[in-house]
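Let us begin with a simple case.
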Amino acid sequence: MVRGSPHPPYGTVSVIKILAATALLCAIPSSLFGFVPVNRWTSTATDGLTGNNGDPVTLTWGLTPDGTSIIGETDSSNLVSFLDGIYGTAPGLISNRPWFSLVEMSFNRWSELSGITFQYEPEDDRAAQGVGAPGGLAVRPDIRIGGVSIDGNSGTLAYANFPNGGDIVFDTSDGFYNNTTSNSLRIRNVLMHEVGHSIGLGHIESNNANFLLEPSISTTFDGPQYDDIRGIQHLYGDALEKTNNGAGNGTSALATDLGSLTAGQTRSIGTDTGSGTLVLPSETDFVSIANQSDIDFYSFQIDEPSVIDLTLTPVGATFNQVVQGGSEQTEFVTSQISNLSLTLIDSNGSVVLSSANANPAGIAETILGFELATPGEYFVRITGGDNAVQFYELDLRASAIAPVLLGDYNGDQVVDAADYTLWRDTLGQTGTNLAADGNGDNLIDAADYDIWKLNFGNVLETPSAAVVVANVPEPGTLLVALLGFLSLVWLGKKSGPPRAQEQACF
């Protein structure tokens, strides 16, 4: 059932009920899924118009003073005195009450997982609570919480309006709330469930997972769970969208700073998503691309030339789900919702150094072994290819640039006759990435021989080896040098293993 009637433009009311020992929610329209929003807040007391899906908002909340009428109810609100009876009272402001922190932390939990900023509004002008009284700064909150005796010690626990209403009503005649174990998990999970409706999420069911927005209140977990977080980030973006005074991190100028990277260090973000649906109260590191227009920028700094490895991994659980009352559950593989792209950008914030977007949805994109020769700040850009929310984890790792041993053409960390042989056998070749192209001009010639000769006998420095310099015989005259070079050109045309005198003709 749905309590109340649709009220344009605020939508319907969601009701939470208790039956026997289990709290049950009444049904909502069958087209509404937990991860697909009923609707988001489009106008708030703080922001005015709030933009589109994925954009952050600021919402105010508060407690309706006792004695305030509630639209659709016979009695006026008595929630404050009801909570005082369970937890005790305190003089002065409502925020002094011992139970106030339970309410506050319930809103704060949603806030730390999404682009919503919740702010407590202490003022309330006692206008009738319901969808007909929008919030106003220093007038009344966007979301008002009241309570009345609804149907006695069973049945309805609470109900809430969808945006742009959002008001919540508790059943203050229900003994369900008298159990205050686990830091009053019962009342907190009911409240966080109803706040989920107040910010735009509907009911769903799953036969192999547990979510806060399911039609039963559970005390096996604490607060919003995996798919609840997906839904709210689809509506309002992740928590980084409210940084920079609500401008988010969608440009290099607003990039989220991941800090300085030195050789051997790793920086990561999005590490709490994991592969399961259970979310612990301590977990907050959830980042996502909310839709096709969402862009996330990150910055990092290096103090010395470094090799950088970037890995962008789409992450998410697999579970079954259906709208409440639906006939058939659908499997959702949420690591494969949107095809993500990864880009490394130069210190100016615009020049692309490297990008990766070849893999399909669900497969990590990588930029590995990219050498950054200049110390400074660099940027990582993440985008999505589909109009759906996708959690991800981003990992950055720096390593030292491997030292280069000039003249070591075969890469065995010593400059010796074998390198000369490689130079000789490829003399005259042109192209890129030639092993014996010591000066990088895409041509194997006498200049590369000179590099080898200059470094002959050197060994790559390691903790157990030092550079050893051998004497290289020098030709007596320029004519001898020229004749030697021409001879080497001729020798370069030979095939087969070198003779001993050829190895010694340098």
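The second case is a distinct protein. As before, the sequence precedes its structure tokens.
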Amino acid sequence: MRSPRRRRVVAGLLLAPTLTGCFASGGDSSGGDFADGSRLRVALAFPPAENFSPYGADATLLSRLGVTEGLTKLDANGAAAPALAESWTRENDRNWLFTLREATFQDGTDVTPDAVAAALTHATEAEPVTAALSGITLTANKSGDNQVRVTTEDPDPALPLRLSSPGLAILSEKAYGKDRPTPVGTATGPFELTKVNGTTAATLDRFDDYWGGRAQASGIDARFIADGTARTNALRTDQADVAEAVPVSQASTLDKGTRHETATTRTTSLLLNTKSGAFKDPRLRAAAREAVDTSVFAKDVYEGYADPGVGIFGPAVTWAAGKRVEPTGRAKAADADGTSVTIATYDNRPELPEVAQVLQQQLQKAGFKVRLEVREYSRLESDALAGKFDAFVGARNSLLDTGDPVSVLASDFTCDGSYNLALLCDKEVDQAVADAEKESDTAERQQTAMNAEAAVLGTDATVPLVHQRIITGVGTSVKGVILDPYERALIGTGTRR
């Protein structure tokens, strides 16, 4: 057994008023001695929406900052690769055995089979269910000194991919109290979250006992800046070292050496509320789909930093084009005849309000009356999931949650899906997704995923608009920023300035 390290006391989540100052201009903002490595100043688009809960939208924020890890991760080809589990075997259809590597939690305790099993069990009990477990029932138990057996109620060929999800990060026992779990000082990544100032800023310090080696940066000073122009300006004026999600309208203001374009699996879509309101009628959904000209968004709104929408899975999913199936069974479009609808979107990604405005014009031309609702994302998601809008414009990384195309279809478009913004509940879609979930052969699973995609598109619950390329602003002195097409990682052990 390894001895717990001698460590500083971790500060709790400190809620404070909105910060008006800029990033710390050097040194350690928390008072420690980090003479052997500079701190990184990172401008992020999305503030924590759930007080850094590891199960919702904040889970990806934690993984991008190098705080949390799962048993597995995705490699460059989108396959499952070792993380806290150094290897695994499939014992039978429902049982997988994961062998753990030697690692330490940030609170000084060891990563043990009991701790891992407990963390996965807590994830299965989370409400709402984390997206990676949508439609999945699993149990986890200790098996020997360094192994965990994960058992699924039904066969799950994609389990190693699923366990790479940021929403299935492994935290220590101390993370789980009466309230929601906290990643402060309880995760395993190279950076430890030590302080949070509301939804405006966070301080992270290097975790010196990280199993993957000591990070080159001494810590991270993160600011959450929803305004894309302000994020870009922070980089241009040397207030930030890294700025994520630079708006296309601001790309030309950055020097070529600081502007990095990455093809991603992120698709911007119009999601139509199929449960209530005007778009409960499939004929009006068809009318909305026919009114949309996707080429306008790629060329004009995204200024060439995107491709016209062709499906839920775009060109960055390299195998999809050859397996795509034409949707069938679509309803015949009805006359909009002045039908009033409300389209909601968020301004954390600054192109989205413009997308919504163009949609408003296109739908009005088709006879709809359209009202727009624009908010910051954390103030919008719960209302969207509750069906309070007729339509929602969002940018969704289709392979973010698990890396498995079938899993995202289950999460976003089935009756029991946990991120079903279209509120779709269709027997044919559920059956197509269920058929895909049974496939263990990679090629067959991909094909059945595309069959399920066609079933979803046939309902007109979603209209894919564009497939995005993400622009990241990186200072010329900064090295090792992770430009991840899955958008799960940004800062790692090799990121430095």
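The longest strand covers residues 259-272. The chain is about 25% helix and 20% strand.
Keep these points in mind for the review questions at the end of the chapter.
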